[in-house]
Design goal:
This is Transcriptional regulator. InterPro entries: TPR-like_helical_dom_sf. Among the domains are: about 80 residues, Orthogonal Bundle (434 Repressor (Amino-terminal Domain)), CATH 1.10.260; about 160 residues. Helix content is about 70%, strand content about 0%. The longest helix has 25 residues. The N terminus is likely disordered.
């Protein structure tokens, strides 16, 4: 199902083509022409070939990459040192080099509220070594405290409490409306906090509270951007959120941010980076129990499952179970999402990634029984996940019935992540085009929201 976020450039090559107004055929001709300039004859100008580079994860051969690089003014050395598609010129890089102090946090917030909302890059800009470096930097930091107030109006506890009061409502709206519906609201709140941090006058305690508010608002803005399909924007918010969490001295908030970043890497089939981030999140938690500990271990399990590492996955799942059994009355509000339905669904998804479909179906069935339908986006996710499992098990009628159940929830939320899952289901159903239910369900999924 299409969403407003679907217009985002979902691959760096799409971004490059959009910048230059190139169709797939035009790009193919450009590559063929440049290849001839490099002395390679009979280079076919195939539209389908370049389409697969963008949509099927096919890596162009070396000659094609060098030909495209020559057209884009990128050196052969960069092509060699930055594996495809990292060498493609996609505009400004996402900064990760802010100082790990209160001033660096404020600078990161100013940068993010000035540009992240309009950044429509639907791919990951920070990958590979950049992810590992960020995770290591975070783990090696000692928490800091705000040491001086900035010039400007006085910020008191009443102002802080008023902003805090708005955050649960933003989380609720994200659950029920999807990221596209709330990202502008969250960004507006973040702008207010950023302005207070940059220009206000406040005590050390109030300053730490403002940094913590900024961290959680930037985390939510990143999540909403991730859900809406703006993945570079999500990374930018999360980098700023990490700096604010560090300035506030809150390691658990930082762990939650890295947990979100890990899931984004899982979605982009970058499981090693997902594992780096999940391990950093668990280490930040310092062996904490309760919902937070279970959430962090569950994200680690998802990363192991994405790698196909059954032993690592089951080890993390056991740790998650142990943490959940040790209840903690001090779980932060953001951990409230980790309930019985969420836990069961994450177990089911781990089993999907491990290729154990009957177990996946059992856990997803339980998740749907206990999950609150008011959280429409997640309910749609679990229905789509179970529908895919049923189709892969050969139960086409049941899979189609689950898709029908999911459609109202898909229409209630504008989630690009669920839109992508729906499109994957459509492709899966095309293998069963002769089945009487399939054509109608395909039309339902194709209908724009």
């Amino acid at each position: 199902m299409s969403t407003e976020g679907a217009g985002a450039c979902a691959h760096p090559l799409a971004f490059v083509r959009a910048q230059r107004g190139w169709s797939y055929q035009r790009l193919a001709r450009v590559v063929a022409r440049r290849a001839r300039d490099l002395g390679v004859a009979n280079m076919a100008a195939e539209r389908q070939k370049v389409w697969r580079w963008e949509h099927r994860g096919v890596v162009p051969d070396r000659v094609s990459q060098l030909a495209l690089a020559a057209e884009l003014g990128v050196s052969a050395e960069k092509v060699e040192s930055h594996p495809w598609p990292a060498w493609l010129p996609t505009g400004d890089v996402v900064r990760t080099d802010y100082p790990w102090n209160s001033a660096g946090s404020v600078t990161s917030m100013i940068d993010v509220v000035e540009g992240a909302l309009t950044d429509r890059r639907g791919f990951l800009t920070i990958t590979g070594a950049g992810v590992a470096s960020l995770a290591n930097e975070w783990l090696n930091l000692e928490p800091t405290r705000l040491v001086a107030a900035l010039d400007g109006g006085r910020v008191d506890e009443q102002v802080v409490h008023r902003i805090e009061h708005n955050i649960p409502g933003l989380r609720l709206m994200d659950d029920r409306l999807g990221g596209e519906g709330v990202r502008r609201l969250v960004d507006a709140e973040l702008r207010v906090v950023t302005e207070l941090l940059a220009k206000g006058s406040y005590t050390e305690k109030i300053g730490a509270s403002l940094q913590l508010l900024a961290a959680e608002l930037a985390r939510i803005a990143g999540w909403a951007s991730f859900d809406a399909g703006y993945h570079t924007s999500a990374q930018r918010y999360w980098i700023a959120a990490l700096h604010a969490a560090h300035a506030a001295g809150d390691r658990l908030v930082g762990a939650n941010i890295m947990k979100n970043m890990s899931l984004q890497c899982v979605d982009f089939a970058r499981p090693k980076e997902a594992l780096d981030l999940a391990e950093a999140a668990v280490a930040s938690g310092g062996g904490i129990s309760g919902r937070v500990g279970a959430m962090l271990q569950m994200r680690l399990a998802r990363a192991h499952a994405a790698l196909g590492d059954q032993a690592g996955c089951f080890r993390a799942l056991a740790q998650a179970e142990t943490a959940a059994d040790r209840s903690s009355p001090q779980d932060p509000a953001w951990a409230g999402i980790f309930d019985e339905g969420f836990h069961a669904a994450q177990l089911g998804i781990c089993y999907i990634d491990l290729g154990q479909l009957p177990q996946a179906d059992r856990w997803l069935t339980h998740a749907l029984k206990v999950h609150p339908v008011a959280r429409a986006r997640d309910h749609a996710t679990y229905l789509l996940r179970r529908a895919a499992v049923q189709i892969d098990l050969g139960n086409i009628d049941h899979g189609c019935a689950l898709v029908r159940q999911a459609v109202p929830f898909l229409e209630a939320t504008r989630s690009q992540r669920n839109a992508r899952r729906a499109e994957e289901l459509r492709r899966s159903l095309r293998r069963h085009a002769a089945h009487p239910e399939v054509r109608e369900v395909d039309q339902l999924l194709a209908r724009p929201t």
